[in-house]
Amino acid sequence: RNENIQRLHRAMNRLRIDDEESWDLVRSVRIDGHTYALLAEKRGVSPGAIRKKYYRARKTLKRYFLEAA
Predict the structure, then answer these.
(1) Number of C-alpha atoms within 13 angstroms, CB side, residue 6?
(2) What span, in angstroms and rounded, lies between the C-alpha atoms of 13 and 1?
(3) pTM as predicted
(4) Over the stretch 22-31, which tens digit does the pLDDT of each residue have?
């Protein structure tokens, strides 16, 4: 379990370095609990656009997590 937490930490750090916007989006949704609608309003885009960007960010984070093994 501790190993997975360390892997996630490394993956999140890599995402933050590689793509700050994706990191911010994952943090906002998963950690801060913001909704797609709220983020869309703040960013001036549609909730669908936020959902799509979030999905892509999660895919990248998953890839980084698996590579951190």
Answers:
(1) 5
(2) 19
(3) 0.87
(4) 999 999 999 9
